[in-house]
Protein: UDP-glucuronosyltransferase
Amino acid sequence: MSGVIPIFLAGLCFVLLRPTCCSGSRILVVPVDGSHWINMELILRELHSRGHSITVLRSAKSWYIPSTSLIYNYINVTMLEDESDMNFYNKMLQNVMECRRSPHFISTFCQQHLITSMLGNGHEILARAAATMLDDLVFMKKLQDAKFDLMLTDPALTLGVLLGSYLKLPMVFNVRWINNGEGHFTIAPSPVSYVPVSGSELHDQMDFLERTKNMLHYFYSFVEHHFVISPPYSDLLRRHFPPGTDLLSLERAADIWLVRTDFVFEFPRPTMPNVVYIGGFQCKQSSPLPVELEAFMQSSGEHGVVVMSLGTFVSSMHREAIEAIAAAFAQLPQKVVWRFVGERPSSLGNNTLLVDWLPQRDLLGHPKTRAFVAHGGTNGMYEAIYHGVPVLGLPLLFDQFDNLVRLKVRGAARVVEAKSITKEDFLEALKDILETPSYRDNIQRLSQLHRDRPMSPMDTAIFWIEYVIRNKGAAHLQSAGFNLPWYSYFCLDVAVLIMALIGVFVWGSVFVCKILCCRRSRRKMKAE
Amino acid sequence: MSGVIPIFLAGLCFVLLRPTCCSGSRILVVPVDGSHWINMELILRELHSRGHSITVLRSAKSWYIPSTSLIYNYINVTMLEDESDMNFYNKMLQNVMECRRSPHFISTFCQQHLITSMLGNGHEILARAAATMLDDLVFMKKLQDAKFDLMLTDPALTLGVLLGSYLKLPMVFNVRWINNGEGHFTIAPSPVSYVPVSGSELHDQMDFLERTKNMLHYFYSFVEHHFVISPPYSDLLRRHFPPGTDLLSLERAADIWLVRTDFVFEFPRPTMPNVVYIGGFQCKQSSPLPVELEAFMQSSGEHGVVVMSLGTFVSSMHREAIEAIAAAFAQLPQKVVWRFVGERPSSLGNNTLLVDWLPQRDLLGHPKTRAFVAHGGTNGMYEAIYHGVPVLGLPLLFDQFDNLVRLKVRGAARVVEAKSITKEDFLEALKDILETPSYRDNIQRLSQLHRDRPMSPMDTAIFWIEYVIRNKGAAHLQSAGFNLPWYSYFCLDVAVLIMALIGVFVWGSVFVCKILCCRRSRRKMKAE
Structure:
């Protein structure tokens, strides 16, 4: 979700480069920037190595998606606004921290409301961008002439869905989030009695109050979808698609959903035949560390090392929190490698190494690593699971709260609140993680299960992408339920008929009984 | 489903043989006899070749499960009654033919009613057998001492479920049917608006009347489960299992469901993370035919050959139908290989070879084969798909009607009714299959999709069986929804609370409005 913003803030102008000449199929890719791109690029590398020709729709001012690449061409996207993204995140983080001061039952709705306003703006911009694109007949003709075989997109960005549907391309989603929630909610029946709604910070075993909260979150996301996210697209859909088309129907028409989830992490929930799970496909065995870092790791002796990284958001934390964390680290017998950008904390101990970038995968896979202090981003969580390192979570934004709940209820993580962090709390939680063997045992059990698969998730992803290309779609895996109006889907029309028939039967029976009783009483009266 | 009967008619006495000494894990297997066993045995062969020690619970008078086997030991089961199974099927078939003379809307309920009475008897016998087994402390002690690592069972036979649960063994189902319907209905949310209920002969795109019929079938199976199938087990469950245990909860506790389905054949429907699809795992490339049969095939020239097999039930068809079929075959330019037991039809043509057994797989995979006349048993349907041979269906019993609907709506089969078969109808349908290219094109497209998998279904099955052994279960893939009471599962308690709150809010608002209005009117009156 975190990577949706840059292109949200964009107006688009496109430069279609010449297609490279290579064997295999022609794949049009519309990725989401930021952390989502890291995942998508890994798949693109694999597809490129198999001889497919790849064209990426990218933002000209992208954070992560380079314009120079040996593995793909690109269709360029130029930003209109030049708002600093870090400012946006800083503001967002402050607002989230405000929300978290409310009682827990309310705070998740408050946070969801922040996300709604972000999504509202974003989808308005996206819909305008998509309209500009679809209205540009020359550009669309060029795309059509390119004769792509597949649209591969992350549907958190609706551009790919709209473009793929317009071009009538078979479509594969590389997905976790879609519009306003987890992809599953769009495609699979998801009873809210045991499927926690995104942002609710609940797990799959809920008491009555939690189920009520989950239901309210579900209503909220329903309203959000219908009154915030969908309306900006209505004009565009009316003009360019068959009558009755809405965003949801386009999304549900995707052939295969490569969902970046694994049920070692996600709670078990209903799914559909065209959903394929590739959670953790980015994880790999660790490589040797640079010499200096390796020496630092070895210097930790039997105590080992704590690794801390809060992704891109570390500079957004308030100063007191940073000082508290640094002071807590200073009291550990362990050494600490901390990915840190900004002014050096005054309370920093000698055991702590600050770095502005760290080879996270290689550090988490290092035998000396004892714990991972993390913000709870999905990629980091899967890496922690893959390498079996227990987590101390410091969630800041978006899905990070939900992610950490998933590790916490499995006894593989503890969570501290960034809004009110103190040295004592942080130290107590970290010592608990380091000294209680169950955290390590639990995450290593998750690691064992996560790695125990019939096929690597990357090979699975590639198989299904090529499957859709080979078979020109996968319509036979798509549910017929999506073509039904909602009242038919829920059989309300049938229920009305059956209840009416029962009503008529009961009324008829009562009527007949009354007539019979009347006759009998008349006879009685006559007899008397 | 067809193989459930023999053990239904059994009283049980057990002889536990000594376990073989071999490497690997100890697997206790409770199979269903008949066609289900053919599938199970293939898996057991594979498991045996991987060094697992297998113990099979078999009936002493089994049709298919041999007592002499190099791949497994057995626990023997002795029949009490000695009713001829063919007599049972003959009676059943006559009753089904009677049912099919009713209007189509009603006939499926009539057939379902026949199955209900069969299931009612069967489950009473099964429950008594299971009680005898669980009450036999010496026998149970022997089973416990054998320290099995896994229960592998076909849950169409509840014995395996009960035994596995009692012994607290990790459990893998090799399943298509469970109690009173398709396995999915037990484990996955299955909206009846697009998921046809077993026995309804509907497909996934239903009009209003069909959805009504499907809903009624669903109600029927609900009533059947609660009032026919479950009651015989209540005493046994009360005595041997924790309070509140019912058959459904034991079944839902299975770790992995290897479902003998593939979505090339089955309509897409919701599923769960612990459901693994192995449909068609019994299919293999064809082997060369015996010399005489090969010569017969080659003698067909460019016209090719029609293969006909109605499984075990051919002798149950009435004489007129057999004569009509033979006469129709006689008019074909094709040659015909007909698996036939009984008196030779008088109208048989020179082009038709009668055999009492045929190598079905090798015939279906032969390049001269042009069509398959079949009763619609699941194994045969998957073999037809695998080898891409169009089907003329002649359904007789059980799921055969439903199976053929699945091929028919995909344009890969036609269906003729055995109850009213005439030479003309049969010939017209068969010629249509042979002469219209779309049937062959459609089933070959299904064949292509069916074979296009990331892993063979047999390897998939073995992986997940060994996964459950390795990890001592797969609890992390089981839905938390199954632990909820039904009103919580459907959030009815939450709905009541929310409606009550809305009610109080509306009532309060009206009350406040009334007070305000009263005050205002009083003030007005005073002012006047």
Observations:
- Chain B touches chain A through 53 residues (CB under 8 Å).
- Residues 12 and 319 of chain B are 38 Å apart (CA to CA).
- The first helix of chain B runs from residue 5 to 8.
